[in-house]
# Entry
Amino acid sequence: MKIYYEQWNPGPDAQIDIRRADAICREYAAQGFDLTLRQLYYQFVSRDWIPNTVQSYKRLGSVINKARMAGLLDWHYIVDRTRNLARNSHWSDPSDIMRGAAQGYAIDKWADQPRRVEIWVEKEALAGIVGQVAGDLDVAYFSCRGYVSQSELWRAGRRLGQYLDRGQGVTVLHLGDHDPSGIDMTRDIRERLELFIGEDCGSQVLFDEDHLDEPDGLPNLEVRRIALNFDQVRQYNPPPNPAKETDSRAGSYIQTYGGQSWELDALDPTTLASLIRTHVEGIRDDDRYATQEATEAEHRELLTAASDRWQDVAAFLGGDA
# Structure
C-alpha cells in the first residue's frame, strides 16, 4: 500500500536505492515474507551496493522513511517486530467465531512424536520469519532476546521436563549471531536447561548438520545450534562486522575464528526458513504427522459445517440465530 503524505524529490542515488528496495521487498513478499529495515540493509550490503557501515545503515533508513512518506514504497514491506499492539479479539455474532474457530482449529500434531522440537532465536527482529515457518510446521518458537532470562529458562525447564517425563525426547534448535556472545549462548542454554530439568538427560550441544536424517540415537535433551555456524559463513558469505573486543568472551573467539563476526540477520530469509524446515523435517516422523493432519482436517470440516448451519444449531440449542 503506497500512500502519499509529503512531497519529496529524491536525487539519482536515492532513486536507485528505492528501485532496489522495492524489487527486494517484492521478491520476498511473493514468498510470504516481510523484512525489517536491518534485513533490507543486509540485502544491500550482501549485493555490494553499499558498504557495511553505521553511516550506510542510517542513510538507507532515511531514504526508506522518506520514500514511504512520499508514496514511493509500500508500507507493508518494512516491519518493526519489536513494537506491536496487543488487544482482545471481538466478534459481531456467534457464527463469526464459529467460522474463525474452523479456520484456526488445530490439534497438537507432535503429541505422539518420538521427539518434541522447539525453535529458539536470539533476536526478536527475526521472530516473524521464524514464527512463519514454525507455524507451518506446528512447532513452538521462542525469541530469546540475547541471553535468556533466568525466569524464562526455568519455565522452559519445567515445560521440556514434562515432555521428557512423558517419554518424548526434546530438541531445541537454536539460532544466533556468530560472535563471541552469540556462540556462547548455545552452551548457556544447554547448561541451564540441564540444571532446571534436574536430571541427567544425556544431553549434548551440537554445532553441525551431520545427523539431519538420523533422529534415532539422539540424546533425550539435545540443544542443536543450526545457525549461524562457521561453515554457513563460508557457504553464504554474509557481510562481516568486527568482533567486539570488549566482549569478555572475545579472546577465545578471536583465537578460533579471527577478528570478524557475522549477524544472523544477514542470512537471506528464504535460506533461514529452508534451514529451519530441513532440521525439523529431519527429526519428524512423517507418517505419524500425516495421521494427525488428517484428523485435524476432519475436525475442521465438522466446525465449518456447524458455522455454515449456525441458524439450525442455534435453533436446536433454543437460542436466537
Summary: The domain at 114-284 is CATH 3.40.1360.10 (Dna Topoisomerase Vi A Subunit; Chain: A, domain 2).
